[in-house]
Specification:
This protein is of the alpha/beta class. It has 15 helices and 5 strands. It folds into 3 domains: about 150 residues, Rossmann fold, CATH 3.40.50; about 60 residues, Orthogonal Bundle (Helicase, Ruva Protein, domain 3), CATH 1.10.8.60; about 90 residues, Zinc Finger, Delta Prime, domain 3, CATH 1.20.272. Helix 4 packs parallel to helix 5, helix 11 packs across helix 13 and helix 14 packs antiparallel against helix 15. The relative contact order is 0.09.
Length: about 325
């Protein structure tokens, strides 16, 4: 678990990052198509879209390692558009890399992470750069929302949509990592990690490493404590209390989650949304809850007070309890 040279703890996300496309977890159809591009030596510009922690960056690095081998770092430029949003990064850094002479390979790869953070002007400049250096440069763009990428860029790329990773795949990968690190764990601990991750493999691995650092068995209690995640039954109790008209009890549960457990309002909304159809409530109540949930989520995103909005959500549900 410790670094042999300095005794430092490695970050498991990097330590166990897949080195080949075939090792990328959760997207067999995508990796098969990408592998065919590599095998045919016919790599187009690529656009990877999907939530965080689903393998977009990992797949990009794996492509570079398969094409360039040990020379991959000399032929692979990684930029983060959320840090370098302006048009200058497109005109300067990308062009400088694209123009640099290199030998032995037909093209180099520029990986632009969080490309949906680029301004429209920067994206327009990027489109022209993609045209100008198409003979010797391939672009891989990564984003959360492909709709924020201008159409001229989308039309120049093969688009791959990375969905949240299946729970079974996350669980299997976590068990494999636990075995490699010789960790003691329980199945309810793995289930808790999968629930907290919600399809995000990076979050799952980081949570496993954090839970292992306690020195105890990785179990449900440890996982929920270190991930600041409410147990599904706590969320269900809070919502059920409100639906039953007991606003005081629902508010008390909410207060415990926010004040004592440190959960953010957005996290609570996400957990309620994920679980609403699993609650044992009538369909009309679930629909009403979702309606108010969407309104609260929007208001919080616009800067409203989280606690006020969540209490208003529970109050609205409780007021309609008898309908």
């Amino acid at each position: 678990m410790a670094d042999a040279a300095g005794g430092r703890q490695e970050i498991w996300v990097e330590k166990y990052r897949p080195q080949r496309l075939e090792d990328v977890v959760g997207h067999p159809s995508i990796t098969e198509r990408l592998q065919s591009y590599v095998d045919r030596d016919d790599l187009p510009h690529l656009l990877f879209a999907g939530p965080a922690g689903t393998g977009k960056t990992t797949a990009s690095i794996a492509i570079a390692k398969e094409i360039y081998g040990d020379d991959w770092q000399d032929n692979f430029l990684e930029l983060n558009a959320s840090d370098e949003r302006g048009i200058d990064v497109v005109r300067d850094r990308i062009k400088d890399f694209a123009r640099t002479s290199f030998g032995g390979y037909d093209h180099r790869i520029i990986f632009l992470d969080e490309a949906d953070a680029l301004t429209d002007d920067a994206q327009s400049a990027l489109r022209r750069t993609m045209e100008q250096f198409s003979e010797n440069t391939r672009f891989i763009l990564s984003c959360n929302y492909s709709s924020k990428i201008i159409d001229p860029i989308q039309s120049r790329c093969a688009v791959f949509r990375f969905s949240p990773i299946d729970d079974d795949a996350v669980a299997a990968h976590l068990r494999d990592l636990a075995a490699r690190e010789d960790l003691e764990y329980t199945e309810d601990g793995i289930d808790a990690l999968v629930y907290a991750a919600d399809g995000d493999m990076r979050r799952a691995i980081n949570a496993l490493q954090a839970a292992s650092a306690t020195g105890d068995v990785v179990d449900e209690e440890t996982v929920f404590a270190i991930t600041a995640t409410a147990r599904p039954e706590e969320i269900e109790d809070m919502v059920t209390e409100a639906i039953d008209g007991d606003f005081t009890a629902a508010r008390s549960t909410l207060d415990d989650l926010i004040s004592n457990r440190g959960l953010a309002g957005g996290d609570i909304i996400d957990q309620v949304h994920r679980s609403v159809w699993e609650f044992d409530v009538k369909e009309a109540a679930a629909v009403r809850l979702l309606d108010r949930l969407g309104e609260a989520d929007y208001r919080i995103a616009e800067g409203a007070n989280e606690r006020v909005q969540l209490e208003a959500l529970l109050a609205s549900v409780a007021l309609n309890a008898d309908e």
